[in-house]
Amino acid sequence: MKYKEKVYILVVFFVTFFGITLSSVALNHAAPLDALKDNMYDNYGVDLTGFIESRAGWRLQDDEYQRDISLAEIRLQLEIGKDLGWGQLTVKGDLAADDVVHETRGELRDLNLLFSPLDIMDVKIGRQVLTWGTGDLLFINDLFPKDWKSFFIGRDDEYLKAPSDAVKMSLFFDAFNLDLVYIPVFNNSEYIDGERISYWNSLLGRTAGRDFIFADEERNRFGNDSEFSARLSRNINSKELALYTYSGFWKTPEGLNGDMITPRLIYPRLTVYGTSLRSALWGGIGNIEIGYYDSRQDRSGEDGLIRNSEFRLLTGFERELGHNLTGAFQYYLEWMEDHNEYSRSLPTGSPEKDERRNVLTLRLTKLLMNQNLRLSLFAYYSPTDKDAYLRPKVHYKISDQWAVDAGGNIFIGSDDYTFFGQFEDNTNAYAGVRYNF
Amino acid sequence: MRKYLSFLLGCLMATAVTLAHAAPAVEEIVNKANMAAYYAGDDGRSEVQMTITDSQGRTRNREFVILRRDEVDGGEQTFYVYFQKPSDVRKTVFLVHKHIDRDDDRWMYLPALDLVKRIAASDKRTSFVGSHFLYEDVSGRTITEDDHELIEETAAFYVLQSTPKDAGSVEFSSYTIWIDKKTYLPMKAEYLNKEGKKYRIVEALEVKDIQGLPTVVKSRVDDLDSGGNTVTEFKEVKYNIGLEETIFTERYLRRPPREVR
User: Where does the record place the Uncharacterized protein TP-0789 domain (chain B) (predicted)?
Assistant: First the structure.
């Protein structure tokens, strides 16, 4: 790591830490903040909460395509909630000064209105974070956008879920519930494009990073590039059953436009059908979820530029292993359809994906010191790709306002082109400090 | 014959007199105490403030609204807990379907992720939200899990000693509980660890009459091993407010009902 960068991280980190500490002490334990919050609530019925945090991370090895720092940012989040009587308004936004890409930006995470036009109906309209499905950091029927960059560099787990601009309508009947989500303009996931994180570039046949930021062809035509998701769910004696469908596009760009002069990634059309079951099992929680990914632009599997259709399955089990110690295990499968056609369509010399990709995950969480200290490990391991991704983390709540955390994103792989193996040189450690108000 | 009759009558009367003065059967005391402490009314709402003090005197606060609905008196219940403070857990919801014959079902809703997480809930003797109260203190320990014995009767209390049937499932060896003879509210419980040493005290500090139902509005847990304690205050307690069964479902995790907002 360059000396200058090291110094920069340390400075950012400590200035923020001591800055907030000193100001909160100087301002008599942030009394003005509390006064502001009380004032907002008393006079306008507005609920104000948020946090300010400083976060830094660095690569634990050299990556010729990236800077040594993987994360260096100061972030302010403000959330405003207002109960309108007939509905609830939520506005949540971040202001982040980000040194890795040298920019300060605003990110709007929530701007939505939740109301019930009928006794049996809830509607949430606007920017919102959406989640369903039963997987733990594995997703089959949750086709709402993710932010993989945030996930891999050590931002808070909250940032794995990217917001959608959507209309969500939920209907509650005696026999079942029905959720319908319409997204008028496609919201893609934040994919790994070479900015911040280096990746396997199939065009170049090598690892690339900031030297080749892989651009995408945005899908932004209102109505034409819309997404639709539905879930039908039912809870029978604490057994949670659900059916899902999705019509839209691969959330990460799983296709190439085929243009050799300006190659771009594209989001091919996708339809998904799936189901899940979650229930109490053997003193813990068991779940199973399956999905069929119909890659509509390459149904025959012969188009080498577009990802094939596939069948996905995940099954998991979680239970307490001891006092304040929880363990969870998952098995996940991606089973490619028409593997022969895929093999034939591959350019000679390209690494070939297996017909079946198996992934096992393990989660261990231990709570200590009145649950203020949380030690956790999440591990992905793929015996077929021969790669792994480990997420160790320590989180400590110093007080009701202050929290610190530190962790790592460790990628291991024997090949440069497998799902986790391609990120090997991005292996990083990070630390953060947060003041909640 | 007359002699015998009068003797028999005498015996009967003596029995009747003894019965009138004797304590109710242990089972009855335990049942009544369980009802008084955990099943007051058909449903209820309360605003709860917890102050957690650690061994070094540092405090942390929790504020939440709790809704309870009894499905069966003395049996299945549902709880809805909506967190207001500290701010990092604001709007987090905790939902419990309490069962008698099997593990409870628990869900947690994390608003930042819009995630409904189901929680493995086999160990009920873990801390509730980092306080010195345990899940079982909040939702009640199933009375059939212990053998109960009336060891003393004072002017004000029935004193019971309870010993777990399955000693391996809990961290205590037994506990002694003082039950108010008038209200049947448990006023104090002292827990002995496996070595027979007292290490934990749960105490009712204040009782109020709410809608004719005696209610603990302030209680305290002391952890004698660590020196920490938690004081809980129940405010705005109301019973029989007509909570609908549907409030305790996924719908209201994502959309908190007006009862908690």
Answer: 75-255
pLDDT value for B136: 87
The pair of three-digit structure tokens given for residue B37, joined into one six-digit string:
């402490």
Burial of A329 (0-12, 13-18, 19+ CB in 10 A): middle
3-state secondary structure of A34: helix
Residues of chain B with C-beta less than 8 angstroms from the C-beta of A372: 130
User: Do the Cβ atoms of B120 and A158 come within 8 Å?
Assistant: no
pLDDT in tens, A344-374: 988 888 889 999 999 999 999 999 998 999 9
Which residue of B105, B126, B132 is in closest CB contact with A324? Answer: B126
Q: CB–CB of A407/A365 below 8 Å?
A: no
| CA-to-CA dists, residue A12 to A66, A72, A98, A408, angstroms | 20, 8, 11, 19
Q: Given this model, what pLDDT does residue A26 score?
A: 52
pLDDT value of position A260: 84
Q: How many Å apart are CA A65 and CA A73, to the nearest integer?
A: 20
Q: What gap in Å lies between CA A275 and CA A290, rounded to an integer?
A: 6
Contact A129 B86 (CB under 8 A): no
**pLDDT of A291 strictly over 90:** yes
In chain B, residues with a C-beta closer than 8 Å to the C-beta of A128 are 114
Residues of A in contact with B131 (CB under 8 A): 370
B194 in A contact zone (CB under 8 Å): no
Work out the minimum CA distance from B168 to partner chain A, whole angstroms: 12
B47-68 residue pLDDT tens:
999 999 999 999 999 999 999 9
Q: Are A363 and A376 in contact (CB under 8 A)?
A: yes
**In chain B, helix, strand, coil percent, each to 5?**
20, 45, 35
By CA distance, what is B98's nearest residue in A?
A: A238
**Residue spans per domain, chain A:** 3-436
CATH superfamily of A3-436: Porin (2.40.160.10)
In the stretch 26-45 of chain B, residues with CB closer than 8 A to chain A read none
Place of tokens 């070595």: B195
**Where do we find the tokens 């760009």?**
A253
Residue B97 and residue A326: Cβ atoms within 8 Å?
A: no
- Split at pLDDT 50, 70, 90, the class of A385 is very high
Mention every residue, 6+ apart, whose C-beta is less than 8 A from residue B172: B164, B191, B192, B193, B194, B199, B200
Residue A223 binned pLDDT confidence (cut-offs 50, 70, 90): confident
Is A230's pLDDT higher than 50?
A: yes
Distances (CA, A) of B111 to A48, A235, B114: 15, 21, 5
B131, closest residue in chain A (CA to CA)? A370
DSSP state of A168: E
Domains of chain B: 26-254 (2.50.20.10)
Give the number of beta-carbon pairs within 8 Å between A and B: 93
